[in-house]
Amino acid sequence: MQFRRGARRIGALMMTMLAADAMAASTPAAEVPSPEAQAQILDMLEHEALYQDKVDWPAARKRLASLQSYPGALQTALREIIVESTGGHGVWMTVARMREAAERAQQAGAAAVDRAKAADAVDARIGWVVIEGYAPTPGATPQEAFRQNIQRAARWQQIIRSKDDGMRCGWIVDLRDNSGGNMWPMLLGMAPLLRTSVVNNEDVGSFETAQGPERWTLTATAVQHTGKPVLDFGQSGHVLRQPGAPVAVLFGPRTGSSGEASVLAFRGRAQTRSFGQPTAGVSTGNVVHTLADGSRLLLTMTVMHDRNGRGDGLKIEPDQRTDGDAATLAAAQQWLLAQPACQGR
After folding, report:
1. Contact 114, 132 (CB under 8 A)
2. 113 to each of 17, 66, 203, how far by Cα in Å?
3. Which of 96, 287, 290, 326 sits in a 20 to 30 Å window from 213, CA-based?
4. CB–CB of 275/178 below 8 Å?
5. What is the C-alpha to C-alpha distance for residues 71 and 130, in angstroms, rounded to an integer?
6. Residue 170: which residues within 8 A CB-CB, separation 6 or more?
7. What is the widest separation between alpha-carbon atoms in the chain?
8. Residues paired with 222 in a beta bridge
9. Which helix or strand (DSSP H or E) is residue 299 part of?
10. Residue 213 half-sphere exposure toward CB, CA atoms < 13 A
């Protein structure tokens, strides 16, 4: 079974460091794919995985064949092959494990939202927005997943709208606890801050494929992938009172996958500066494949680029390194208040 590199499965594109973490932490030794699913996994990895050339595939197949009677060793060997061929971003998971990952994501998201309480510590002229990790419910129908994604994007825009009261001269976007999930609601939810024009469509990043860049584009109503809507409100989203206002982006080692896509979407935006520590280093794109036994392979196929076409799939460096939450916040606030938009306010 072969798949074209960069195949456009828009609804399934998902950045999944959260899922990989849950898999590594909790998968029982005896939990392995069926023989049919194993064959699918090897075929897809060999022909489609981003780092397919790093694996000796005849040797990998021979190794797995010799371990069929030893589930624990088979699971370890399969995981090693997936890690090697995907740069540590791909993962095989049962639906049950995906549900566990979603629960972990919700817990992490709750912790991230708690950070928003620290907004009281910043100058009143600065709006603070936390964008946490997020993914729709595992096993949801495409229609239900779409509904959940639209709701989450609308919720983030509503948070921005509620803070955009005419007092804000600059913004903080906090991605420090965003370890992944689905990138499209994040981009649409942050659109009021990502966009610098109220009339023009704006490319904010892309997946780099063998066929060329597959661009992420924001319009007044939607986020698009290769010019096709992924999520669309059907009406105009929020527009900042001061479009293109300065934005400080905070990130660190817990920022991964879709969190890194969010980082890249801001990189290259005018009046934007980032603070913190390097990201997790999985700035690559996954596609979710359902296998013969109902389990899933999250297959890493592309490298993420920023709006200027820069990106290598590895850790993303902040413009200004800072150590600790207090120092990061202080540096971001100092930079924002020094911008022309905040002078005399």
Report:
1. no
2. 19, 48, 28
3. 290
4. no
5. 42
6. 125, 126, 127, 245, 246, 247, 248, 336, 337, 339, 341, 342
7. 73
8. 232
9. strand 296-305
10. 16
Cα–Cα nearest to 163, from 131, 190, 188, 128 = 128
Looking at this protein, which amino acid is placed at residue 231?
L
Closest C-alpha to 234, from 146, 144, 141, 129: 146
Indicate the Cα dihedral angle 224, 235, 172, 256, nearest 10°.
Answer: -30
Q: Quick one: DSSP state of residue 134?
A: B
From the options 3.10.100.10, 3.40.50.300, 3.90.226.10, 3.40.50.2020, give the CATH code of 95-340: 3.90.226.10
Tokens 């005896």 belong to 30
Give every CB contact of residue 227 below 8 A, 6+ residues apart in sequence: 215, 217
Place of tokens 């150590």: 323
Domain boundaries, the chain: 95-340
Each of the 345 residues of the chain gets a pLDDT tens digit; together they read 222 333 334 434 544 555 555 444 444 456 899 999 999 999 999 999 999 999 999 999 999 999 999 999 999 999 999 999 999 999 998 878 777 766 766 666 566 556 555 555 789 999 999 999 998 887 789 999 999 999 999 999 999 999 999 999 999 999 999 999 899 999 999 999 999 988 899 999 999 987 889 999 999 999 999 999 999 999 999 999 999 999 999 999 999 999 999 999 999 999 999 999 999 999 999 988 999 999 999 999 999 999 999 999 999 999 999 999 999 999 999 999 999 999 977
Per-residue tokens: 39:
């064959």
Distance CA 77, CA 290 (A): 21
